[in-house]
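Fold it.
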Amino acid sequence: MATLAVYSSKGGVGKTSLSVNLAWAAATLSSRKTLLWDLDAQGAASFILAPDRKARDEARAVIERDVAPEKVIVPTGIANLDLLPADASLRTLDLLFSDIGANKRLRKIGETLAQTYDRIVIDCPPGLGVTAEQVIRGATLILVPLIPSALSTRAAEELRQHLDQRGKSAPPVLSVFNLVDRRRLAHRAALAAAPDQPAIPMASVVEQMAERHAPVGVYARNAPVTKAITGLWTTIERRLAKG
């Protein structure tokens, strides 16, 4: 089992769309039993994959161990892909972790989920707070989506500096250029400076995910963005295989 945390210290970088599309790739391209764990209180990933569910403010109760995860997990309609949804109760998650002092709580819940799932993709809340630290403790690989620009790369550097303080126990980080618009000079310059870094193009089909309630691979299988997601997933699986 591997846990992939999709993290960004700021919003507007396509974190949720990347999380949903990678979960689809794990479930569909690799036929892995996959769980998308939505930890972002905005619940955008949950809205995309399970728009008709009735939110009952149970997401926090899962963290508190008052409700078993399997009682909250819902199917998505996509083979091999389930969802552990978010709701408004996650808005004070940092405070919860500070209060209970359980610095390995998410990791322990993940170990329980590993009995059922081969891949867990976590849509993390933005910011480098207590919740992010919990996710880091339990992640196999951290993916950091970045808009290609000098300013956005600061988010990845900030995370790497934070992880360096933990030494060898820190999980590896894979930065991903996201929402790439090659018509923009700054984007082209950033891509040229890091030619080996994965890049996912900006595309109208990605914006349709919230309307279609599906990953792009479901309704735009041959689109360039889907092919880029496929290539990124291949890279991720190879990294996981190396350990």
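The chain has one domain: 2-242.
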